[in-house]
């Protein structure tokens, strides 16, 4: 037992000594307890001359990088001088189309909407159908009035014929009266001659005189009847002309009624895509109200807004590389169609007035119309409003642009 206690005491002393050494750290160790350091430090001093090759390699790499950068800069400068400076680009460009607005020419309730939204339509296709009940009634009423007026014209025509017959009858009566007057004049002259010589009685002379006066009165009466008959013909003919004029007016009203009836079918004016529907079935619409749009995708074009400082070399007919944002790296080639005669700010509702207040110069932009190839437009991939990136190759007009008389060149004139 005594030996076991001695052994435990020795182990405890050794453990306490070890913990004390760990608490002191390496710096507190005695020189006798520290491991010999002179032997491993001598090999570490040998590679001190090695940094010289590493510094030379780094210098060689830096020279190579600088050379590559200089070569790239020279290549870019050569490319810019030979080609790049003739390309003018902008991302302020958009696909446009001559949208046709569908409007109502007559008022009424929407009875049907035939095509669906964003459907392809052809010119003449019915897009909206307006309730046409009232317009059909108007057409029938106009046709009835025309039929009545035509009957009136026929009746007046028969009256004209009767009036002409009356004129002929009055003319015959006038001729008869004139013949009777002539006979009465002869009888009066004969009785007057006999009465002067005393061969005729006074009574006989007076009878012949009265017969002459009666014949003259009959002629005057027949003449008046003849004149009245002729005037009646003229009046009847005037009534006939008035009736015909009224018939023409009624026919115009019928044409308008039929036209209004046709306008109850709102048709597509051009081939394109029906979009932007603004009404629903059953809605009441007024004359001129906007109903929707037809976008002709086959005739799309591009309006690129170039800075005024970029327009020096742009000419009509130059090739344009077009990249559509929606289709990534797909490109196609168009042509410069025309250049706007004024900046966009000129056509605004309230143009800026730089003559008042402080002035800050702002580079203006002018729209350049770019023609899209028909083969590309017919694909229907370009939609109005899409953003595009355009690059104009101005090498064809570079010589004219650099000339001193450039501003007087015919190419600067807006194309007719």
TrEMBL record:
<keyword id="KW-1133">Transmembrane helix</keyword>
<dbReference type="InterPro" id="IPR058792">
    <property type="entry name" value="Beta-barrel_RND_2"/>
</dbReference>
<feature type="region of interest" description="Disordered">
    <location>
        <begin position="1"/>
        <end position="52"/>
    </location>
</feature>
<dbReference type="InterPro" id="IPR058624">
    <property type="entry name" value="MdtA-like_HH"/>
</dbReference>
<dbReference type="Pfam" id="PF25876">
    <property type="entry name" value="HH_MFP_RND"/>
</dbReference>
<dbReference type="InterPro" id="IPR058625">
    <property type="entry name" value="MdtA-like_BSH"/>
</dbReference>
<dbReference type="GO" id="GO:0055085">
    <property type="term" value="P:transmembrane transport"/>
</dbReference>
<feature type="domain" description="Multidrug resistance protein MdtA-like barrel-sandwich hybrid">
    <location>
        <begin position="102"/>
        <end position="295"/>
    </location>
</feature>
<dbReference type="InterPro" id="IPR050739">
    <property type="entry name" value="MFP"/>
</dbReference>
<feature type="compositionally biased region" description="Basic and acidic residues">
    <location>
        <begin position="1"/>
        <end position="32"/>
    </location>
</feature>
<feature type="transmembrane region" description="Helical">
    <location>
        <begin position="60"/>
        <end position="82"/>
    </location>
</feature>
<dbReference type="Pfam" id="PF25954">
    <property type="entry name" value="Beta-barrel_RND_2"/>
</dbReference>
<feature type="coiled-coil region">
    <location>
        <begin position="219"/>
        <end position="267"/>
    </location>
</feature>
<feature type="compositionally biased region" description="Low complexity">
    <location>
        <begin position="39"/>
        <end position="52"/>
    </location>
</feature>
<keyword id="KW-0175">Coiled coil</keyword>
<feature type="domain" description="CusB-like beta-barrel">
    <location>
        <begin position="300"/>
        <end position="343"/>
    </location>
</feature>
<keyword id="KW-0812">Transmembrane</keyword>
<feature type="domain" description="Multidrug resistance protein MdtA-like alpha-helical hairpin">
    <location>
        <begin position="168"/>
        <end position="233"/>
    </location>
</feature>
<dbReference type="Pfam" id="PF25917">
    <property type="entry name" value="BSH_RND"/>
</dbReference>
<protein>
    <submittedName>
        <fullName>HlyD family secretion protein</fullName>
    </submittedName>
</protein>
<keyword id="KW-0472">Membrane</keyword>
